[in-house]
Amino acid sequence: MYDIVVIGAGVTGAFISRKLARFNLNVLLIDRENDVGNVTSNANSAIVHSGYDPVPGSLKAKFNVLGNKMFDQISDELDVHFYRIGSITVATSEAQLDMLKGLLERSHENGVEARILSKEELRDLEPNVSPNALGGLLAPTAGIVDPFNLVAHAVENAVDNGVVLHLDEEVIDIKDLKNHFVVKTNKASYESKVVINAAGLGCEKIARMVEDVDWHLTPRKGEYFVLDHYDLGLVNHVIFPLPSEKGKGVLVSLTSSNNYIVGPSSELVDDTEDFSTDGPTLGDVRRQATDLIPSIPFNQVIRVFSGIRPTTSRHDFIIESSKVNPNFINVAGIESPGLVSAPAIAEYVVDEIVSKLLNLEAKKSFNPCIKKYAKLNELDNKAREELIKENPEYGKIICSCEKVSLGEINDLFARSVPPHTVKAVKKRVRAGFGKCQGGFCSPYVTLIIAKHYGINPTEVKWDKDGSEILLEEVKHA
Ligand SMILES: Cc1cc2nc3c(=O)[nH]c(=O)nc-3n(C[C@H](O)[C@H](O)[C@H](O)COP(=O)(O)OP(=O)(O)OC[C@H]3O[C@@H](n4cnc5c(N)ncnc54)[C@H](O)[C@@H]3O)c2cc1C
Fold first, then answer.
1. Which domains are delineated in the chain?
2. 471 alpha carbon to ligand 1 midpoint, in Å?
3. Whole-model pTM?
4. Predicted local distance difference test score (pLDDT) of residue 477
5. Residues 6+ apart with CB under 8 A from 446
6. What is the pLDDT of residue 43?
7. What distance in angstroms lies between residue 40's CA and the mean position of ligand 1's atoms?
8. pLDDT for position 150
């Protein structure tokens, strides 16, 4: 019997599991994907929002603001790139200048530091902003984070501290036997005293296995452009337009890896599995972005992608026990600002809900830090040379766009949440993230994975089942 089963290893389930690992509890974390953070948590803007725009008093406002404050410590403990570059919301008309004043009031109600910039101040901070820009709202506490390692390292830290992780396992039914639950997957059944539903876009389906909930999730897609590393200075902050009922709008920002990201769109969709992008939508994203920053070099685009938000009929996060059994906890509708909110949501779920259901006894051995591995890109030449002397694999470059070595990829397999796919390697060390998008390194990465797991290279997948890279052997060497 488990004390708790957490369904969903996105950022929400990852931080809840990490928080639970602080206590003497048997915790099982289940995800149907073959890697953690493989759905909405890997396809978003990756902005650690300051919290200037959620409706005051909402759960979004509360957890955004609390979560933002936790990121310096989290990024240090989990060895994740995080930079507080600040955000500027740009007004391009007199009416929008008035709206900025409303946003400033909202920021202060939410307890977020912000101030209005004059036209001249804005241009000093952002020389490439549109000539139509009349002013902006600066929120200095906003940041950018590496969303991939945020989730991978949070789960790794949870596993290092005793949480059991089952990937590639889909929850298909839950029986509520009143004093415990039976969670049935496509592979096995698990008894658990408490179940936490953090299944992202799958939350409503999971919740309805236990009760007829009074809320509904609607998927809303967002499409993006990613630009290659480009002369730094196109923008220095996260640049937003004024928010609307559709969301925060199309932003232009640096990423934590010095690329630029432009997007997202906001379209209601039916299919939660369709991550395709389309020309007209991206054309619209481009038009909206160039209204803010006219000189975006779209000839430097190296990738387009999309993510899907689970928007709720309540227009807010849903974080509560089920009405039929308090031991079933829904953490649903975690759309933006879910990434920044996740650590604070985890504190609330465990300290305020789980603590009333189970005896929480602190685990003395809990270590909040993960083991740090070498990152060649961040070392000076002397340190690199020493590392290569110790282990020549650090001297063999596999991804020449992003300068990722064999040693760094092999280190991944020693971690407690190792990669099994080419995409999982890409998310963790950025092999394949550069200009050639894996054209040169993915064959090597495929062979490295095959060698590590002792499988035939034709069995190695890019991502999900059916995405094998090599179809068949044509020559036997
Ligand atoms: C376009 C876009 C832009 C965004 N920008 C930002 C931003 O800049 N800043 C910010 O703070 N937030 C942002 N967000 C929101 C943020 O990405 C999400 O709030 C967050 O990733 C949600 O995490 P999650 O763990 O709740 O869900 P997910 O990451 O979707 O994880 C849920 C997991 O549950 C698993 N699952 C589902 N069903 C089952 C099942 N039956 N059995 C087992 N496992 C199951 C899935 O495989 C998945 O891994 C954005 C979102 C989008 C789409």
1. 1-83+144-214+313-370 (3.50.50.60), 84-143+217-310 (3.30.9.10), 376-459 (1.10.10.1100)
2. 31
3. 0.97
4. 56
5. 422, 457, 460, 469, 470
6. 96
7. 3
8. 98
The residues lining ligand 1, judged by C-beta closer than 6 Å to any ligand atom, are 7-13, 30-33, 38-41, 44-47, 49, 170-171, 198-202, 206, 222, 264, 307-309, 334-340
Closest residue (by CA) to atom 41 of ligand 1?
Answer: 171
Confidence (pLDDT) at 144 = 98
Q: Which of 29, 44, 69, 196 to mutate to test the pocket of ligand 1 (most atoms within 8 A of CB)?
A: 44
CA pair distance 3, 84, nearest whole angstrom: 37
- Catalytic positions are 49
Closest ligand 1 atom to residue 251 Cα is 8
Beta bridge partners of 91: 135
Residue nearest to atom 13 of ligand 1 (CA): 336
Pick out the chain residues at pLDDT < 50.
Answer: none
Measure the CA–CA gap between 283 and 469, rounded to whole angstroms: 30
Determine the pLDDT at residue 476. Answer: 66
Which residue, 305, 244, 203, is CA-closest to 102?
244
Q: Which atom of ligand 1 is closest in space to residue 339's alpha carbon?
A: 11
Q: Using an 8 Å Cβ cutoff, are 67 and 49 in contact? A: no
Provide the CB-side half-sphere exposure for 342 (13 A, CA): 33
Look-up of token digits 């809990």: 366
Q: Which tens digits make up the pLDDT trace of 206-227?
A: 999 999 999 999 999 999 999 9
* Contact predicate 221/277, CB 8 Å: no
Q: What is the pLDDT of residues 293-302, one digit of tens each?
A: 999 999 999 9
CA nearest ligand 1 atom 19, residue: 338
Tokens coding 291: 């209204």
Closest CA to 16 of 217, 141, 109, 154: 154
The residue whose C-alpha atom lies closest to atom 26 belonging to ligand 1 is: 200
Confirm if 219 and 271 have CB atoms less than 8 A apart.
yes
| CB within 8 Å of 270: residues ≥ 6 apart | 219
Per DSSP, the three-state class of 205 is helix
Going by their DSSP bridges, the two strands 87-91 and 135-139 should be labelled as: antiparallel
| Chain-centre distance for alpha carbon 32 | 17
Q: Render the burial of 20-47: b for 16+ CB within 10 Å, e for the rest.
A: bbbbebebbbbbbbbbbbbbbbbbbbbb
